[in-house]
Amino acid sequence: MIDLLIGEEGLLVRERLEKLLSERLPPQNRDFNLDLFEGEKAQAREIIERCQTFPMLALRRIVLIRNAQGLKKGEMESLETFLPSLPETTDLILVTAKIDGRLSFWKLVQKMGRVTEFKSLNRRDASQWLSQEASDNGYRLQADAAGWIIAALGTDLATLSSTLQKLFLLKGEKKEIILADVESCITAISWKNIFELTEAVGEKDLRRTLTLFQKMSSSGESPVGMLALLARHFRILTRVREGDSAGIPPFFVEDYRRQATRFSPSELDEKREKIFYADWSLKSSPIDSTLLFERLLIDLCR
Q: What is the pTM (predicted TM-score) of this model?
């Protein structure tokens, strides 16, 4: 049996993969009957050898190729010749972000196997997913709270799932999640990083700014979410510069005041305008979101 899992929505792909594994190979039998290959490094000779090996103390053997889009042309050609003779006791699972449907290898895989595609969710679908996930865990997530999460963090389900888990811990036995809960939770998670990023922008320290951005990205922060928090931060700086600190947690007020003095009113207006156009580009341009955010940071540091 061949399964092809396609998509960049990592959480859904992982859930489907774990379901396949649990259905076909109990955890206690995986040490001897589960072989894992990485597409770019995989050699067809080794994959074929493992596929032809009979299961040990189990009914099936699973051969898993992750990041299969990285398979080299020669390896795909060898596998294409082998696939029609795949033993009935072996399940071959290929996980890939995308495929080139013009290649005969992928045409054969789709013809012989079962294809499951996981498309990235739009904002509406992601909001529905959030609400359903909260409900499945015994919580009710208000619509405006779900909308704020999506606006701040984007639609990556792994990031959204992690945020929900933090909210569940925050709420405990109180099962209603409202907008104020979301704002305080996400602010508590991201405030320090965003404040440091804005501090570096205020100092026009581009190297430190980009280093902080890379650090935030590697910790799972999405460019869309960071942009929403950065826009919110500059709106607060503008208010504080004008003497309005209403609604700001008392222990943050002095830090906001100190940072606001780094910018003149005209500079704050200019930077908020740059952020607005970057937000529009992120939502409408095919250019990679990370590249767009880096361009914004370069503009902000000028």
A: 0.55
